[in-house]
Amino acid sequence: METTVWTFNLSVPFAEWAAIYDSDDVAKMHAAVGVKSLFRGVSKDDPTKVCAVQQGPVGVAQKIFEDNKEMIRGAGHVIESTVISSYLDA
């Protein structure tokens, strides 16, 4: 299993982005490939900065990101600001 930590900026209010991220459609897409959302939150110091943490099979979360960039961008995620950190179970 891999835990992926995403940090990025938003071009929309956090609540608007979160409503899409938490939607049934996104939950079904994640479940279909074995990705579980562990956390998503907004920075206490910068309302445009988000952290999301997901866990799933190695490489799957990043593949979803690569394959769906335009949809993700449409939700208000500033793609160019994305920083990805991945951690493997020991």
Write the layout of secondary structure elements.
Blueprint (H helix, E strand, L loop, with lengths): L1 E9 L3 H8 L2 H9 L3 E7 L6 E8 L3 H8 L1 H6 L2 E12 L2
Antiparallel strand pairs: 1-3, 1-4, 2-3
Describe this structure in words.
This protein is of the alpha+beta class. It has one domain: Alpha-Beta Plaits (2-Layer Sandwich), CATH 3.30.70.100. It has 4 helices and 4 strands; from the N terminus they run βααββααβ. It has helices spanning 14-21, 24-32, 60-67, 69-74, and strands at 2-10, 36-42, 49-56, 77-88. It has a 4-stranded antiparallel β-sheet with strand order 2-3-1-4. A hairpin with a 6-residue loop joins β2 (36-42) and β3. The protein is globular and about 35 Å long. The chain starts with a strand and ends with a strand. 13% of the residues are buried. The model has no long low-confidence stretch (mean pLDDT 95).
Care to give the gist of this entry?
This protein has 90 residues and is an alpha+beta fold. The chain has four helices and four strands. The chain has a single domain, classed as Alpha-Beta Plaits, CATH 3.30.70.
Q: Top keywords for this entry?
A:
Alpha-Beta Plaits; 90 residues; four-stranded antiparallel sheet
Assembly context of the chains: single chain
CATH topology: Alpha-Beta Plaits
Residue stretches low in confidence (pLDDT < 50, at least 5 long) are: none
N- to C-terminal separation? 9 Å
Count of alpha/pi helices? 4
Query: Which CATH class?
Result: Alpha Beta
The percent of residues in helical segments reads 25-40%
Which structural class do you get from the secondary structure elements? alpha+beta
Shape annotation: globular
Biggest sheet layout: 4 strands, antiparallel
Mean pLDDT: 95
User: How many beta strands in the DSSP annotation?
Assistant: 4
- In CATH, the architecture is 2-Layer Sandwich
Which percent range describes the beta-strand content? 35-45%
Gyration radius over CA: 12 Å
Order of helices and strands: EHHEEHHE
Strand order of the largest sheet: 2-3-1-4
